[in-house]
Amino acid sequence: MILFVHGEDAFRVNGRRGVMQKAFVAKYPAAEIFVFDFEDQGTTDDVRRALGACAGGLFATRKMAVFLHPFELGEASEKLLLDFLESFTENAGTEVTLLLVSPGKTKKAHPLARFLARHAREEAFGKLDEKSVADHIRRELASIDAEAGFSREALSVFAASLGTDTARIRSELEKLSTFKPGGVFETDDVTLLVGTAPENAIFAALDALSRGDKKHALFLFHREASGPEGAHPILSMCAWQVRRLLLVREAFDRGMKRVPDVAAETKLPPFAVQQMLGRIDSLPLSRIKRGLATLSDFDTKFKQGGMDPHVALDLFIWRF
Question: How many CB atoms lie within 10 A of CB 92?
Answer without folding.
Answer: 7
